[in-house]
UniProtKB/TrEMBL annotation:
PANTHER family linked to this entry: ATPASE, ATPASE-RELATED
Organism taxonomic ancestry: Bacteria, Pseudomonadati, Pseudomonadota, Alphaproteobacteria, Rhodobacterales
Recorded superkingdom: Bacteria
Naturally occurring in which organism (per UniProt): Celeribacter indicus
Protein name: YcjX family protein
Length: 467
């Protein structure tokens, strides 16, 4: 078994070296990871990004646009990973009656290749080159699991139970746990009851706007649903004799890290060199101060998984990767008037300040912005009670046209973050509403992708230098 593991690692190493040499010397590959927590808009972001890179008429801030002579989709290099279903998702948002595509539930990939004409003084002496963009789509809930790798079952349990006690959604699970005896002999019905109660709590917490809800596979189990590796729950500290429920949960926790988290890191995450983290900051603000503080902590934890920094040319030839650029993007900017976009960006920058400082120190470039990958609203201004209100108008998910005023975000992000850090139950000086809009019907002219807000600036930061 040990010899087999060593052979597997050596084989992977040789493959990495071969791939690294080919990429560095012949056809460079940019591996862009796209992640975000529930309802952040990952699927729409990738779909609109690819459509706008194929037809660049709406990408004025994307500097390589004029140097690209052709862009085309190719099969992704990893035959074992599902292809991101770009065509189906594009059809959903461009249909006569458009609708939002299905959300991300597993890892998928898509390869977009560019033929790029060299520019500059020596451009005429160099031939057109090919650059590949491999987009890796994965749930943010899985990313948070990487933070479990360095924790014991006891450490993780203490943190998970502390979070459950601070959230109203954890009451039912804690009541079920109080009636269980972790030191008793393991019985599978009791294990399932606790695991199901814990999963229900995580689902409720996520629905209420909380971001840190691990293990992520409990929320998106896929083919592992019902398996023993997903049938455990946090337990209070105490005796754990052989054959007990506590000992079995500890074993399953270790198996989860070994069989679920580590393969995800090895096979997908560790090869990424550019990353965008999509954040539904408006949704967290609407959910209240506790959800905002939870989001801030989660952003810091997410960054710890990225191993940010720069890798020299020699190490890149050997297949070594670190995330060189990270974009933190507040999505759904079209849900507020453009006059408030600067305030949303400032709040986003404040939310990820700790995370960005650590990444910058490690040598990675980071940026924060607000954007809308697919613009679903138009803006208008109305007089109301002697005041002027900046509104957005769109079609609700129920099919009704509506003008909406979400409330005014504060100029100073501290007015959001300070109550959040102090554990306030609600906002004292404002009520920030959220309305979910359906995608608007589109009429695309030749050469144009779907309408967006700052998607070209996001693409410029993430991949512009490589093209």
């Amino acid at each position: 078994m040990i010899i087999g593991d060593m052979a597997d690692r050596i084989f992977r190493g040789v493959e990495s070296v071969q791939e690294g040499v080919n990429e560095a010397l012949f056809e460079p590959v940019i591996r862009l990871g796209v992640t975000g927590l529930s309802r952040a808009g990952k699927t729409v972001f990738i779909t609109s990004l690819v459509a706008n890179l194929l037809d660049r008429g709406r990408m004025p801030q994307f500097s390589p646009a004029t140097a690209i002579t052709a862009a085309y989709l190719q099969p992704q290099p990893d035959d074992t990973v599902p292809r991101f279903d770009y065509e189906a998702h594009l059809a959903a948002i461009t249909a006569r009656e458009p609708h939002w595509p299905d959300s991300t539930r597993a890892v998928s990939e898509l390869r977009l290749s560019f033929r790029v004409r060299p520019t500059g003084l020596l451009g005429a002496l160099r031939s057109t080159r090919t650059v590949h963009l491999d987009i890796v789509d994965y749930p943010g809930e899985w990313l948070l699991d990487l933070g479990m790798m360095d924790k014991s079952f006891a450490e993780w349990s203490a943190e998970a139970l502390d979070a459950a006690r601070r959230r109203a959604e954890g009451a039912a699970f804690l009541a079920t746990l109080a009636g269980a005896d972790p030191a008793a002999k393991h019985e599978e019905p009791a294990a399932k009851t606790l695991a199901q109660g814990f999963t229900a709590y995580l689902q409720a917490a996520r629905a209420s706007g909380y971001s840190d809800c691990t293990p992520g596979r409990f929320l998106l189990p896929g083919e592992m649903e019902g398996s023993p590796v997903l049938t455990f729950a946090p337990l209070p500290e105490g005796r754990a004799p052989r054959g007990s429920l506590a000992r079995e949960f500890e074993r399953r926790f270790d198996a989860y890290k070994r069989e679920v988290v580590r393969p995800f890191f090895r096979d997908h995450f560790a090869r990424i060199d550019r990353q965008v983290v999509l954040v539904d900051a408006l949704g967290a603000i609407h959910a209240g101060p506790k959800a905002v503080e939870d989001l801030r902590r989660t952003m810091s934890d997410i960054l710890g998984a990225f191993r940010p920094g720069r890798v020299g040319r020699l190490l890149s030839l050997l297949g070594q990767h670190k995330v060189e650029r990270i974009l933190f993007a507040a999505t759904k900017a079209d849900h507020i008037h453009h006059s408030q976009h600067g305030r949303l960006t400032a709040i986003m920058e404040a939310l990820v300040r700790d995370a960005r400082d650590r990444a910058d120190f490690a040598g990675a470039k980071t940026s924060a912005m607000s954007l809308a990958a697919l613009r679903a609203t138009v803006e208008e201004t109305r007089d109301h009670g002697g005041a002027t209100l900046d509104l957005v108008r769109g079609t609700t998910l129920e099919g009704k046209r509506a003008a909406f005023y979400p409330g005014e975000l504060p100029e100073d992000p501290a007015h959001i973050l300070s109550p959040a850090r102090k554990g306030a139950e609600s906002w004292l000086d404002g009520d920030y509403e959220v309305m979910r809009f359906a995608p608007a019907p589109l009429t695309l002219r030749p050469g144009e992708g779907p309408p967006h807000i700052r998607l070209d600036r996001a693409a410029e930061f993430l991949i512009g230098d490589k093209l």
